[in-house]
Amino acid sequence: MRALAIDHSAPGGLAFAEVADPVPAPNQALVEVKAVSLNPGELLHLLPEGADGEVYGWDAAGVVVRAADDGSGPAVGTPVVTLRWTGAWARLRAVDTAWLGVAPDGADFGALATIPVAAGTALRVLRKMGSILGRRVLVTGATGAVGRYAVQLAHRAGAHVIAATRNVAANGPALKALGADEVVVTPAEIAGPVDAVLDHVGGETLVEAFAAMTGGGLLVSIGNTSATGEHFPFGALFADAATHDRRISSFIITGEGDLSADLGWLAHEVAAGRLDPGVGHRADWSRAPALVAAHAAGERLGKIVLDVS
User: For the Enoyl reductase (ER) domain, which residue ranges apply (predicted)?
Assistant: First the structure.
């Protein structure tokens, strides 16, 4: 089958290659990939560090062409969103049915491809916060793929959403349109305590977000786009009656269990227009090497979606 494989001698570190078709395990469906979305972690780490010939890719949407032999999962012909740490950048991928969600017929595969890592992470992290109805929820890195979905989902759950972004003037109107009640540059600007935080920035932002939390608050770290460490000044972790039992938790989507129902629900919400997938740049997958090279050069392309032709 045709795939985009790592080739460090090629532009963007990717080149088309013919590779063996995947052989599904009994609990896996074979999916014909129609669209993929690219994640920063793939571009920052997998491409530079991967071996030539490897086929990576986490997020893909497509159609089941062989149902799982164990009877789990959807039938042949079903449109699906899929998640796995490898194999998305290819015509076919084998996916555990626990990490595959059924999408509605006629849905846009490009929009669906943005869901697994970004929307799945946002949904599961917000659930870990418990009921957020009427609570103050801070989302850092709010213009990223996870952040955009988190702002929308937290707003729909009844939270007072505070979005943090480096450029309020440029990004504030769009974030408020997605459901943000406040837009700030740093957590230090927030007036009043917050009840929960989804943090994707790390570094000083995480330290300030923790300081902004009220007692019983939960900060969930999903990454560190700042590429800097966290230094808590002396006394930052001391508690009084107002800050008792603040917690920091780590999260990765593939540490979760069965995602099929959540991925399917998210697919229907995106297809119905109730969630904005935030596609920044869309092109045929033949453009992938050039787009990856442009991203590495610092061009702001937003969420990149590739249609697999």
Answer: 9-306
